[in-house]
Amino acid sequence: MLDVRLMTTSLAMLVALMSVALAEPTRDQVRPAAQGAAETRPIRVILPAPWEPATTQAEAPPAK
User: Fold this and answer.
1) H-type helices in the chain, by residue range?
2) Which residue, of 16, 21, 32, 62, has the fewest CB within 10 Å?
3) Where is the signal peptide, in residue numbers (predicted)?
4) pLDDT, tens digit, 9 for 90 and up, residues 41-57
5) Is residue 15 pLDDT above 90, yes or no?
6) How far apart are CA 9 and CA 16, in angstroms?
7) Which residue has the higher pLDDT, 44 or 16?
8) CA–CA separation, 3 and 9 (whole Å)
9) CB of 48 within 8 A of CB of 54?
């Protein structure tokens, strides 16, 4: 009885690991050479310091 449970568990683990391996995107693919500037440049957000009071959109100084 133990052998049947061990074999079933091993088969289930094998199927689970194979499905995960097949579901992951391949990382070895070559990326296209023509990428837009928005795709290659990271987005940076400037947050206020914790000791500065938060300003709302109406209180913010106008942008030039």
Assistant:
1) 2-23, 37-40
2) 62
3) 1-23
4) 778 888 878 887 766 66
5) yes
6) 10
7) 16
8) 10
9) yes
